[in-house]
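Case study B.
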Amino acid sequence: MKIISKITIGLATAALLTVGCSTAKSVSEESLGLRKTNLYVESNATHGDATKYGTGAAGSGHKIQRAFQDAPPMIPHDTEGMTPITRDNNQCVSCHMPEVAVSVGATPVPASHFTTFRPAVALSKDGKLMNNGEVVDPAASSKGNAISIKSNGDKLSGTRFNCTQCHAPQSEGLAVENNFKPVYTSKDGANRSSWNGAKMTEGLNTVEGK
Ligand code: HEC
Ligand code: HEC
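Model:
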């Protein structure tokens, strides 16, 4: 009896859905995606928007507003011949390290890139999680998850060496308009990052490592 009533309800729902579908305004498959052409035929009518990276050489003075406060800036200049970045060939640092950046008109690599944010813990030879010579249990102790925020002096942190992991060239003529309107929290947030050594840990719940 129970089963029968379930089936009856199921059928009634299906009937309702069918009625719903037949009266609803139909939506064509083509209108759903970015591609507005027949989805089952590859014809010349279907073509994507070409990727158009800026071709201005580094130093032409063109910059792109930051997407939001402290967003990694997009690369505004041509990167032809600069990638891939390898251990022995990183042209980005040759212009962007603070000691040369000012003279070539490039934005200097910021303070955060000279800081280590790695965990304060390390594995011992016998596989124990150690913090400052002490065995820690990450689940039980805040020391187990502690991040060690340390200045790297004037040495670029190894985690920032591969610039194009976070900074990318901007393609122009976007297929989809970006309606996002950033609210910058610092006065010149559209043009520079606000992170510095003093503000680095502000608002972060971390334990200073040694
Ligand atoms: C020949 C020197 C030179 C090289 C090499 C170079 N840049 Fe630049 N970069 C500049 C200059 C100068 C600017 C400022 C805009 C301009 O004048 O083109 C700039 C701007 C930038 C910006 C935007 C900064 C801002 O304030 O908005 C980023 C990000 C950037 N470069 C990243 C890179 C990366 C990543 C590489 C390596 C793939 C690289 N650059 C290689 C000179 C260089
Ligand atoms: C792990 C991601 C990451 C890597 C790798 C990285 N950056 Fe950044 N970069 C950021 C972020 C996020 C910001 C903005 C916030 C900040 O200042 O830390 C930034 C900011 C910058 C700025 C703007 C500084 C300012 O004062 O406005 C420059 C220039 C820059 N990076 C260049 C580089 C170069 C050159 C490399 C390679 C040597 C590099 N970055 C590697 C994430 C990264």
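The beta strands are 52-53, 115-116, 121-123, 129-131, 134-135, 150-151, 171-172. The remaining cases will be described in the next quarterly update.
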